[in-house]
Amino acid sequence: MPEARRRAEPAPYCWALYAAEVDLDLSLDAASLTASLVDVPSVSGGEEPLADAIEAALAAQPHLAVHRDGNAVVARTSLGRPRRVIVAGHIDTVPIAGNLPSRTEQNLLYGCGSCDMKSGVAVALRLAAHVTDPSPDVTYVFYDCEEVESERNGVLRLSRHSPEVLAGDLAVLMEPTGAIIEGGCQGTLQAEVVTTGRRAHSARAWMGHNAIHDASRILDTLRSYQPRQPEVDGLVYHEGLNAVGIRGGVASNVIPDRCVVMVNLRFAPDRSAEEAAEHIREVFAGLPVTVTDVAQGARPGLDHPAAASLLAAVGGAPRAKLGWTDVARFAALGMPAVNYGPGDPQLAHSPDEHVDMAQIAECEAKMRNWLTS
Amino acid sequence: MPEARRRAEPAPYCWALYAAEVDLDLSLDAASLTASLVDVPSVSGGEEPLADAIEAALAAQPHLAVHRDGNAVVARTSLGRPRRVIVAGHIDTVPIAGNLPSRTEQNLLYGCGSCDMKSGVAVALRLAAHVTDPSPDVTYVFYDCEEVESERNGVLRLSRHSPEVLAGDLAVLMEPTGAIIEGGCQGTLQAEVVTTGRRAHSARAWMGHNAIHDASRILDTLRSYQPRQPEVDGLVYHEGLNAVGIRGGVASNVIPDRCVVMVNLRFAPDRSAEEAAEHIREVFAGLPVTVTDVAQGARPGLDHPAAASLLAAVGGAPRAKLGWTDVARFAALGMPAVNYGPGDPQLAHSPDEHVDMAQIAECEAKMRNWLTS
């Protein structure tokens, strides 16, 4: 899945196991290649061994020019085509949750990152290696630190260091969408809402005022909140407002004078970041609200000709993307961007994350068809 | 004040500043001696420099036999008197809160531990040094780690290693009581009350169940709780039930599946520890409750002859002790124990902790009168 703003700790053992060089065999079918990718742990911040392997495998392809920036790898064709499309995917994962190494069960491939999004990365690597004569020029972007705070994101870094390598007419982000085109994305906002009280010894609680007890007001507001489900450019989004963290307490014998509720708002792309922040302040009127992070969404953009040709090649009805994804970064760079990739997005970040291997092959076939037609 | 079950971090700088030996001058008046004690930081776990200084000062008194156990120091007269009383105080403090070094303002002495309870310790040190021919034999106990979890408490350790040095007919704990005899103490119980939910990506919150939102049920129960104020052996206690901590949250994009509320019950000494635990389970019926720590209270015990003689020497009406104190440990060793010392107990653990210097002198005079009459 898209973003995850938690500060991920790299799994400590990945350094030890994968200090040695890893060889990727791009002649493997996409499902087997996915398994190879899953078995190189790459929790955000620890992508170097995998980035090295991807760089080495792509540098061996004579039709590609390879660019490296930190743990991001960009490979480009330069055939002088009138159009250039970007095919992008992040190579990091959320922390490992006892779900490595990869394993298969009937038609399903399990393992950390199998769904989000090493299956999409495998498809992109296969296309990069084997579609040597695409109709548009293609820029493949494999980037790091998508699952952590925005400031570390590899696409953001590339857009600052080398914006020219990200130029294009359309971006396809191969995030898990269940092999359906998902348009745009919702924005996400983090805020802290605070209650304050007065400390006292807990044996004489009436001398103080308990800020944790007062937080029930915030939680009651969240429980009764009715999220919007607006239609934007023909797609229906679904907002949400949730507590994602709470902390309070000084010591076990002290009446606490402060309680902080961390809330997360998912907002449809008809709202700007500023409007989302204003909304949160209205919801918690009377309490101190600090917006700690906000990422604007992206409108669907499916009416753009380049997006329409992809839509025709893939078929089916598009739907709204609910999670925030880096389509918003490409939208901010001025090009339409859609999400399309194998894997059920609802399985992303879950310990039993898995992907249907047939869906990986389907995505590869449809993308190959689009790029060569 | 009495207990503080938090795990206190020793202030890092105390080691550096006070690695050198400290000399205590027991000929100073009690208020000046209090200031000297305050200026030797002794956050729980970091009492060694102060314990060394106390041991050295008492070892210089020929009428006392000194016993050391960790950072606890015991000094005893051995005059063959028919009665033996214990005068006890803890030498540790809660963490420093920008309130060192000590300073005086008119008749008040400010600083970490000035009230809780280095003023009481100063009185006890003055009595130990200067009352060379007391009517009862006296055991002075200066002990460590009272402000942290029970298992580290210096009196508990002494009672296991050398119970004979704690033998006596009455214990006077020189905790801050505003120079009024306070009888017995309330018990204290820590418990964790938990709500559970189901994780999901926060962009699709409806796939999960938010455990933090559910904690409002616990907070509402706490807000509406009506504490008892029972009379026990003639003194009125005042119970209390409070959240003292709350924690929950997985990551900023995950619907949390667990929220833990830490609650603290203060219970009058007419309830046993078992009854207090049962009460908490009833209050939060239907939710998992784990009792993590419990310390029984102590009934007042003021009808004991030794306590009555102290009461007569001090004068005034006794009142109930609301905080838990180590009187409960002495009560458990089979002797009556009361609280009596300089300092307003409501200032304990507060950053602007202070003590009235006249009250220190008053306590010393009344104790000296009692021990020599």
Topology, element by element:
Two copies of one chain form a homodimer.
Chain A: H1 13-17, H2 30-38, H3 48-59, E1 65-69, E2 72-76, E3 84-90, E4 103-105, E5 108-110, H4 114-130, E6 137-143, H5 154-161, E7 170-173, E8 182-183, E9 187-196, E10 200-201, H6 211-214, H7 216-224, E11 231-232, E12 235-236, E13 240-248, E14 254-255, E15 258-267, H8 273-283, E16 289-295, H9 305-314, E17 319-320, H10 327-332, E18 337-339, E19 354-356, H11 357-372
Parallel strand pairs in A: 3-6, 3-7, 7-18, 8-17
Antiparallel strand pairs in A: 1-2, 2-6, 4-5, 5-19, 8-18, 9-15, 9-16, 10-14, 11-12, 13-15
Write a concise keyword list for the protein shown above.
homodimer, 373 residues, alpha+beta, 11 helices
State mean pLDDT of chain A (0 to 100 scale). Answer: 92
* Helical segment count of chain A: 11
Largest interface, Cβ cutoff 8 Å: A-B, 58 and 59 residues
Give the low-pLDDT segments of chain A. 1-19
Number of strands of chain A: 19
Spatial shape of chain A? elongated
H and E order of chain A: HHHEEEEEHEHEEEEHHEEEEEHEHEHEEH
Helix- and strand-based class of chain A? Answer: alpha+beta
User: In what range is the share of β-strand residues of chain A?
Assistant: 15-25%
| Main β-sheet, spatial strand arrangement of chain A | 1-2-6-3-7-18-8-17
Helical content class of chain A: 25-40%
Oligomeric category: homodimer
The Rg value of chain A, from CA coordinates, equals: 22 Å
Task: Kindly report how far apart the N and C termini of chain A lie.
Answer: 29 Å
Sheet with the most strands, sense and barrel status of chain A: 8 strands, mixed
